[in-house]
TrEMBL record, chain A:
Domain ABC transmembrane type-1: 83-273
Topological category with respect to the lipid bilayer: Multi-pass membrane protein
Family the entry assigns: Belongs to the binding-protein-dependent transport system permease family.
Record-linked InterPro entries: BP-dependent_transpt_permease, MetI-like, MetI-like_sf, OppC_N
Gene3D superfamilies linked to this entry: MetI-like
Protein species of origin: Paractinoplanes durhamensis
PROSITE patterns named in the record: ABC_TM1 (PS50928)
Transmembrane segments: 21-44, 87-110, 122-140, 203-229, 255-273
Name listed for the protein in its UniProt record: ABC transporter permease
Localization: Cell membrane
Keyword Ligase listed: no
Keywords per UniProt: Cell membrane, Membrane, Transmembrane, Transmembrane helix, Transport
UniProtKB/TrEMBL annotation, chain B:
PANTHER family from the UniProt entry: D,D-DIPEPTIDE TRANSPORT ATP-BINDING PROTEIN DDPF-RELATED (PTHR43776:SF7), TRANSPORT ATP-BINDING PROTEIN (PTHR43776)
InterPro entries: AAA+_ATPase (IPR003593), ABC_transp_ATP-bind (IPR050319), ABC_transporter-like_ATP-bd (IPR003439), ABC_transporter-like_CS (IPR017871), P-loop_NTPase (IPR027417)
Keyword terms, alphabetized: ATP-binding, Nucleotide-binding, Transport
Pfam families: ABC_tran (PF00005)
Protein's UniProt name: ABC transporter domain-containing protein
CDD domains with a match to the protein in the record: ABC_NikE_OppD_transporters
Length: 279, 248
């Protein structure tokens, strides 16, 4: 999404995806991360919000495999708990922007004429506007938290999804089977819903999977700026930000652990997405 | 008459594709439109099928009026397209493709009817579960014919429906079309650039050249004693018995 990140992330991911073993590892990581998020409350060894000031900055140990933070909270438990919002955010973004973008794209391709021209024009303008900046502005106005950045980022992703899907919908629409269906008497609504959309679905899944990684980085950036979830919530972006004073104190493990979690997850999802795209 | 076309004209920009053409198809009749590529045959077909608007002229299709909806039009006229590889939805099995049409047109006993249609075009239950990519070109064209016959139209337009098929497969599909006409009483508007295939399926023929009709009459007569120079040239290019095909 954020274009500066787009190329450095996609190219190596595409190269990795050309190796079977890399894709397998990436797939396993995606599964593990998703499972962790689903089961977080049951697998976290400690209460992620339990403060224990006497035990602050504890080193690695059997009880605290990643140590503790400035308030003595178990870092592994916070990382596990944080996987929930850190995955849910991008998930909501790709579902919202995928559904909206595809609906706009199919409508534009089907109706055509001035409607398509107008939609394409608006998409081009929105596309030129940096999505992350838009999201940050909207969040600054509507307030920090989970919802505002996610909705704002979804909006910012709509033109990206819509552009790709519109081109595909135009191609699909020009295939002779669509004319055959029209001669059969079917309505445009029926043809779009029962034929165009199912045929576009595989492309949409790939598009959404690729966007997932970017959405995760963008949301982490928003959290990092303090516009996302607020403490004491456990969220990877927030953990990177909150770990900054500890780095100065000589205990960088909170920021590093959360950043590593973000990077590994993003790379794994993107490699799997690129593998799907290359089929 | 199920189809009566009078003074049909179609202009694309400044190019006149169809220039004052009149023809008709009787109930259960079969009319061929022949002519070389670019003579305006497909344009006529698309206008009759309702995919394109005429610039001028009138088209009477059975008892349809300007106010008839698309569904009643679909029950009057259906069309089979040239390209069997792309005229089916690649995600849809043969059975679900036929079932969708039968359901839309409110037909009862759809599984039985699906089987009847497959029988009619020489396919069986094994093909019913297949996706288009698992079928050959000829089999796909059979599916397209079955789908077009599903709403029980009075007129079936076949636009170069066998042009993309191998010669031996062409013969099978042509026989099937002749049989289907006898079985269902549907009329054909059979469009082809290849005069040699019209004898199998059609009673009458019109010859088009540059958007105009240059000759019209019963197939036998036009093939044996063509009057227009253009028709003579077309007839002269039909392979004779004993002719050996050259492999491209
Ligand atoms: N949509 C269109 N726009 C512009 N010109 C067209 C269009 N469709 C057909 N034509 C032109 O009309 C003429 C007749 O085409 P067509 O009806 O497809 O001929 P045929 O089917 O006999 O080969 C051709 O010169 C073709 O280029
Ligand atoms: Mg043609």
């Amino acid at each position: 999404m954020t274009l500066a990140l787009a190329t450095p992330l996609r190219l190596p991911a595409r190269r990795l995806a050309s190796f079977g073993w890399a894709t397998t590892i990436a797939g396993v990581i995606c599964l593990l991360v998703a499972l962790t998020a689903l089961l977080a409350p049951w697998i976290a060894p400690h209460d992620p919000t339990a403060v224990d000031p006497l035990n602050a900055y504890a080193p690695f140990s059997a009880a605290h495999p990643l140590g503790t933070d400035d308030l003595g909270r178990d870092l592994l438990s916070r990382l596990i708990a944080g996987s929930r919002t850190s995955l849910a955010g991008p998930l909501v973004v790709i579902v919202l922007s995928g559904a909206t973008g595809t609906a706009i794209a199919v409508a534009a391709a089907w109706i055509g004429g001035w409607f398509d021209a107008a939609v394409s024009r608006v998409l081009d303008i929105l596309f030129a506007f940096p999505g992350l900046v838009l999201a940050i502005t909207v969040t600054a106005v509507f307030g920090a938290g989970f919802l505002a950045p996610v909705v704002a980022l979804s909006l910012a992703y709509v033109p990206i999804i819509a552009r790709v899907m519109r081109a595909a919908a135009l191609r699909e629409r020009s295939l002779p089977y669509v004319e055959a269906l029209r001669v059969q008497g079917f309505s445009g609504w029926h043809i779009c819903r029962r034929h165009l959309l199912p045929n576009l679905a595989p492309l949409l899944v790939v598009q959404a999977a690729i966007s997932f990684g970017y959405a995760m980085i963008d949301l982490a950036s928003i959290s990092f700026l303090g516009l996302g979830l607020q403490p004491p919530a456990a969220d990877w972006g927030l953990m990177i930000a909150n770990g900054q004073p500890s780095i100065l104190a000589g205990f960088p493990q909170q920021s590093i652990a959360a950043a590593v979690a973000v990077v590994i997850t993003v790379v794994a999802f993107t490699v799997v997405a690129e593998r799907m795209a290359s089929r | 008459m199920i189809l009566e076309v009078t003074d049909l004209r179609k202009v694309f920009g400044s190019h006149v594709a169809v220039d004052g053409v009149s023809f008709g198809v009787g109930s259960g009749g079969s009319l061929a439109i022949v002519g070389e590529s670019g003579s305006g045959k497909t344009t006529c077909a698309r206008i009759v099928a309702g995919l394109e608007r005429a610039t001028a002229g009138t088209i009477r299709l059975g008892d349809l009026t300007d106010k008839s909806d698309r569904k009643s039009r679909a029950r009057m006229v259906q069309m089979v397209f040239q390209d069997p590889y792309q005229s089916l939805d690649r995600r849809q099995t043969v059975a679900s493709c036929l079932d969708e049409v039968l359901k839309f047109h409110g037909r009862d006993e759809r599984p039985r009817r699906t089987k009847e249609l497959l029988d009619l075009v020489g396919l069986d239950q094994r093909h019913a579960k297949a996706l288009p990519k698992q079928l050959s070109g000829g089999q796909r064209q059979r599916v397209a014919i079955a789908r077009a016959l599903a709403p029980e139209p009075r007129l079936l337009i076949l636009d170069e429906a066998v042009a993309a098929l191998d010669v031996s497969i062409q013969a099978q599909v042509l026989n099937l079309l002749a049989d289907a006409r006898k079985a269902t009483g549907v009329g054909y508007l059979f469009i082809t650039h290849d005069l040699s295939v019209v004898r199998h399926v059609c009673d009458d023929v019109i010859v088009m050249h540059r958007g105009k009709i240059v000759e019209a009459g019963p197939v036998e007569k036009v093939l044996t004693s063509p009057e227009a120079d253009y028709t003579r040239k077309l007839v002269g290019s039909i392979p004779r018995p004993g002719w050996v095909p050259t492999r491209a």
